[in-house]
Amino acid sequence: MKFLPVAVTALMVSVLLSCSSQSHAKKNADPTLTKNSSAINPVLTGADQLTAYLPLLKGKKVGLMGNQTSVVGPKNEHLVDVLLREKIDLRFGFAPEHGFRGDIERGEKVSNDKDSKTGLPLYTLYGKNDKQDSIIQSIDVMIFDLQDVGARFYTYIASMHRVMELCAKHNKELIVLDRPNPCGDQIDGPVRKDDKFKSNVSLHKIAMIHGLTVGELAHMINGEKWLEQGRQCKVTVIPVQNWDHNKMYELPVVPSPSLPNHLSVRLYGALCLFEGTDISVGRGTDWPFQIVGYDNPVYGDFQFTPGEKAGMVKHVEGKGQTMYGLDLRSLDANKQVFTLKYVLDFYNKMPDKSKFFARPEFFDKLAGTDELRKQIIAGKTETEIKASWKAELDEYRQMRKKYLLYTDFE
C-alpha cells in the first residue's frame, strides 16, 4: 500500500483531540489549496490533509459517510476516488439526506444502491435501515466527511450522530474530517431542550445556529454523553488548518440542491423556518433561499413563479403560481446573520393569520420549541423574542467553549 512519505503517529484515536495532536497535524499538512485559500495561509480541510489520516487507514477495512461535498484539493476530487487510488480497503459508503451525489430531494427516500462512478456499495442512514448493525460490523474504521452549514435543522449532523451511535455500539473507530462552518461566526436562536421536540431536524440540545464545526460537535456529543446509554465513540478529528470562527468560508461544492451559493447558505438559518408554513423560499427557481413570497401582492412587489428544478420537483411550495414578496439576491452574503424579521414580516402581513403556520408541528421541530410560534402569534417583537433566549444561549455558550478546536468569534 503506497502512502505519502510522512510518518504520522500522534493522531491516534482519542475521545478528545489534544493540543499536541493538533500541532502535529499542522506540521504534516499537505500544501493543497481551496478556493478560500491564499498561497501564504491556505485553508486546509481535514480531507485535504492526506498525510494526517491515510496512515490511520493502512491495513484496515474502511467505511465512509460522505457525499458530493467530500472533496479533496483545489480540483475538488471526490474523497472516494482518492481513497481508492491510495489503495485503501474501502468497503462501502453511507449516504445522508440528498444521497451520495447530492441529487435527491429533501425528505425523499435514500435507497441502498451502488455509486454510479465507482461501483462502491451504498447504504443509507437517513431513515430506518435494519442492516446498519451488520454493515458497521464489517469494517474496522469509519470516516465521516460531510459539509455542514451551521444550522441545527440541517440533517447532516443528525447523520453524524447516527454514525457515532453505530461506532460506539460496535466499538469501531471514527475519523471525522473536519470542515469550516460557513456560518460559524454566530450563535443564535432557541436551544432545543425538551425531548418532545427532538427530531431529525432538531436532534441535539444546541442552539438553532450552533456555531460549531462537525468536529467540535462530535466532541460535544461525546462529552455531554448524548449517545444511547451514555456511550462514547472513539473519535479522531482531523482539524481544519488556517481557519477559525472569525473567518468567512465560501463552500467549494453545493451542499444540497436548494443551497446553490454562499448567499443561500448564509440566509438559510433565517429562512428555513418558513418550511413550517406555505410561504415559498424559492424552491423550484434558480434562487432558492434567496427569494421569499406568497400568492398575494400584499407581501411585496417582487414576483416569481416556482417551477421544477433538479433536486426540487415534488416539494415546491406554490408550484406554477405567481408569488409576491422579497428579492434578497443583492444582499452582501458575508453580512447576513440569523434574524426573525422575514418570518415576522410575512406573519404580520398575512390577512388571515390562522393560516400562517400551515404545519405547526414541523415549525416547532425546526425551532426546537413551541414557544417561538406562540410568541409570534402573541405579537412579540424580535427584540422581545430574542431576549427570552438569552439565559439558555448564555448557558449553551459556556458549554460550547469546552469543545472548541478553533479560535472563537466572541
UniProtKB/TrEMBL annotation:
Record keyword Signal present: yes
Signal peptide span: 1-25
Domain Peptidoglycan beta-N-acetylmuramidase NamZ N-terminal: 62-261
Entry keyword set: Signal
Peptidoglycan beta-N-acetylmuramidase NamZ C-terminal domain: residues covered: 267-406
MF-aspect GO terms: peptidoglycan beta-N-acetylmuramidase activity
InterPro entries from the UniProt entry: NamZ (IPR008302), NamZ_C (IPR048503), NamZ_N (IPR048502)
Entry keyword annotation includes Signal: yes
Pfam families in alphabetical order: NamZ_C, NamZ_N
Protein name per the record: Uncharacterized conserved protein YbbC, DUF1343 family
Source organism: Sphingobacterium nematocida
